[in-house]
Protein: Globin-coupled sensor protein
Organism: Paracoccus gahaiensis
Amino acid sequence: MQRDSIVTNSKGASSVHLEERLKFLKLDAGDQGRLRMMAPRVQSSVASALEEFYQIIARMPDLNRHFGSEPHRLKARSSQQQHWARIVTAEFGDDYALAVRRIGAVHARIGLEPRWYIGGYGLVLDHIIRDLVTDRRVLTGSARGHLAADLSAVMRAALLDIDLSISTYLEQIDGRRREVEDAQHRSFDLLSGALGQIAEGDLTTRLEATLSERTRFNETVGSLDGLMGSVRRSAQLISTGTGRISDASNDMARRTEQQAASLEQTAAALNEMTASVRESAARSRAAEEMAGHARQVATQGSRVMDQTRAAMAEVSASASEMGQIIGVISEIAFQTSLLALNAGVEAARAGEAGRGFAVVAAEVRALAQRSADAVRTIRQLIDRSVEQTAQGVKLVTETDTTLARIVSVFQDIETIVTEMSATAQRQALSITEINSAVSYLDEVTQKNAAMVEEASATSALLNTEAQALAGLVSRFTLTGDAAASPGWRRAV
């Protein structure tokens, strides 16, 4: 576009500016004639100067980067040599002006700073001036005047070309600056309008792709749109969640209060149970002592029964000895009765003389009979006594066995009561610990109830803040609002 404007304007304004420059530099027809006369020699100097210039360019990366390859450099060198041919042949017409402006536009487009091609002009002029001076072998006053005029013509022609080229370069830079400024103003207006829409809460606004690529506006607004959508959804979820948390906290507070009351009743019941268990433990210790005393009494009774059984055994032995004595007495009575019978027989044989002896024998026999009767009675009594004594020994033995069993049972009872007492003591200790734990739980539950009430209040406050946040976010118009359900809009 810039090149076309240069070509279009060159036929009118460029010719006027060129005439003004020629007049200002006093580069008149005489000087132009001088240039044409020097043209062959100057062109030879330009050729060697350009060859040196492009060798220098090849060694400088900052300059060489403007030329993609060796053919490109050769083409640029040829074009520059043709342009110098126009300068030294004084073809200062519209084509020349267009060519110079085109060169300046190219330099502006590729970003070649003026210092580089001014340096190129200096190098070419160095060769031209040296060659012109060297060719003048005779430097008379007149020759020096001609040389000065020739050098002046070449210098003014080169400066004219530099002036036109730099002017075009500056015009191009200024044009680009104006275009950039216009584009910046337009972009600023677009960006300002878009920001105004965002300030009003409309996040659906977008800029054209070219401007957005430079500012990342669409990407930023899209991210903000997604962020606000996420915030809106999060606010709704937070509002719903905090409402549920508040309800759950209230329900938990009620259950915690009920639990605290139940724990208080449980603690009271455990206190009563602890007292009962302690009383049971005391009774168990008393029962343990009574069982020990009963065991001692039973043991003492067992020892007494052992002594009784020994005494009954002695009585039984005495009864046996009495039986033996009764047997001896019974034998004596029997022998006495036989002697009395024999005495009666002998008294009968003696007749009257033995009558008195017969009476004695009868009395002895009667005494023996009574003795035998008494012995039989005593034997019966002794036999009965022996039987009763044996029965008593048997009963005493059974009693001793029973007492031994009672002692064993009392020992078992004492062991069990001892274990029961120890168990009761342990239970009392455990229930005391449980009572302490329940008291601690009661205290913790009371604190938890207070914390739950505080959490409920905090949840209510958070719910209020979430609803306020949802209200703030709802003022933004998002890209998904068109497809959003009425329920969602109401929730926001």
Notes: Confidence is low (pLDDT under 50) at residues 1-13, 484-492. The chain has two domains: 9-149, 222-474. The first helix runs from residue 2 to 24.
